[in-house]
Write a structure and sequence with these properties.
single chain, 123 residues, mainly beta, 7-stranded mixed sheet, globular
Length: 123
């Protein structure tokens, strides 16, 4: 089992920045691909960013490219999402996910999910 706990959400003005953290515990974090997803009220969950086990491969949704950066610190069992130039449309609950396979994270069917952290961007 892998337990994931997100933190770092909050209220920020448009154009501001936030850094989300996802702390993992349980099985060997270093072998897991990680991803961030988000879900706004009344909308389906969507992919935001993913990173493979080595950090050598990443994926970003078109809507966040150039503004968000995913990274991982295996020594701290933590994955980060640096969010810059935030927009009101980035408002959502952000979820962290983990799986042994990058492809599974990309597909949104990861085995492990956190409880989410709220990000609200005011205009």
């Amino acid at each position: 089992q892998v337990q994931l706990v997100e933190s770092g959400g909050g209220l920020v003005q448009a154009g501001g920045s936030l850094r989300l953290s996802c702390a993992a515990s349980g099985r060997t974090f270093i072998r897991y691909a990680m991803g961030w997803f988000r879900q706004a009220p009344g909308k389906e969950r969507e992919s935001v960013a993913m990173i493979n086990w080595s950090g050598g491969s990443t994926y970003y949704a078109d809507s966040v490219k150039g503004r968000f950066t995913i990274s991982r610190d295996d020594a701290k069992n933590t994955v980060y999402l640096q969010m810059n130039v935030l927009k009101p449309e980035d408002t959502a609950v952000y979820y962290c996910a983990a799986d042994q396979y990058f492809s599974t994270v990309l597909a949104g069917t990861a085995d492990y999910w956190g409880q989410g952290t709220q990000v609200t961007v005011s205009s």
